[in-house]
Design a protein that fits this description.
Keywords: Membrane, Transmembrane, Transmembrane helix
Strand content: 5-15%
Strand order of the largest sheet: 1-4
Helix content: 55-70%
Number of domains: 2
Structural class: mainly alpha
Radius of gyration: 29 Å
Distance between the termini: 76 Å
Number of helices: 11
Order of helices and strands: HHHHHHHHHHHEEEE
């Protein structure tokens, strides 16, 4: 029974909007971790807290966590790889499923559903159910039960989070340092142009050019001399 429930849930997720897929995957991952390896959630909380308070220690903690779970990963690498593949598959097709929101809204409010859209949705659901069915069948042949296989595959997001969290936080820390320094101000000035007033502006000659007026007419501006009040000639050519 659990096998067929898993197939149905996975099939429905394959035609669900992206936000539904993400929320569901996270929820299932947390529940699976509570059932199978509660220490995974504890470690995730510790790594997250340490990452916020003491960022340099995050990488060390992640390495320690990985070594602590290395035997678990080796023993169940097939199920973990299948789980990662299925989650990647769900995310990919949900991002590229531009009609998911319309499909579910049409079902809810009784809108018209074109036959090609129905056929495409049903086919996508059937193919997705077939994929997870074959993967689970392979795991059964490797002495996994349905419950064990599903729980192990569902813990993949937390494993990945703990492995990549140090790198994400490191990038955020570098971005924060960049924004807090004068480098960002210099970058912004180069992009937007300085607005600092120059008490001794230089002079330059503006070439004659045509200008479009507010009423749509075009007038010719004669060559003239003007100053560079902000110190940048390129900002004051006209």
């Amino acid at each position: 029974m659990l096998h067929w429930i898993a197939l149905l849930v996975f099939g429905l997720l394959s035609i669900a909007p992206f936000r539904v897929v993400v929320i569901t995957v996270i929820g299932i991952s947390v529940i699976a971790a509570i059932i199978k390896i509660p220490s995974l959630l504890v470690m995730a909380g510790i790594v997250t807290a340490v990452s916020i308070l003491f960022p340099p220690l995050t990488l060390i903690l992640s390495i320690i966590f990985f070594l602590m779970k290395i035997s678990y990963i080796i023993n169940h690498y097939k199920a973990l790889l299948f789980g990662a593949g299925l989650i990647t598959y769900l995310i990919y097709i949900s991002i590229n499923n531009y009609y998911a929101d319309y499909f579910w809204s049409a079902l809810r409010f009784g809108y018209y559903l074109p036959t090609p859209l129905i056929q495409r949705t049903v086919l996508q659901m059937v193919v997705s159910m077939l994929i997870i069915h074959l993967l689970l069948y392979f795991l059964y042949r490797n002495k996994y039960t349905t419950k064990e296989a599903l729980i192990i595959m569902s813990t993949v997001p937390l494993f990945l989070l703990l492995l990549i969290l140090p790198f994400i936080l490191n990038q955020l820390e570098e971005l924060k340092d960049f924004l807090d320094t004068d480098t960002f101000d210099e970058f912004e000035e180069n992009q937007m142009g300085s607005t600092t007033y120059n008490p001794n502006p230089e002079l330059h000659t503006v070439e004659g050019h045509y200008r479009t007026n507010s009423d749509g007419s075009v007038s010719y501006v004669r060559p003239h001399v003007r100053t560079n009040p902000d110190g940048f000639k390129s900002n004051n050519l006209r």
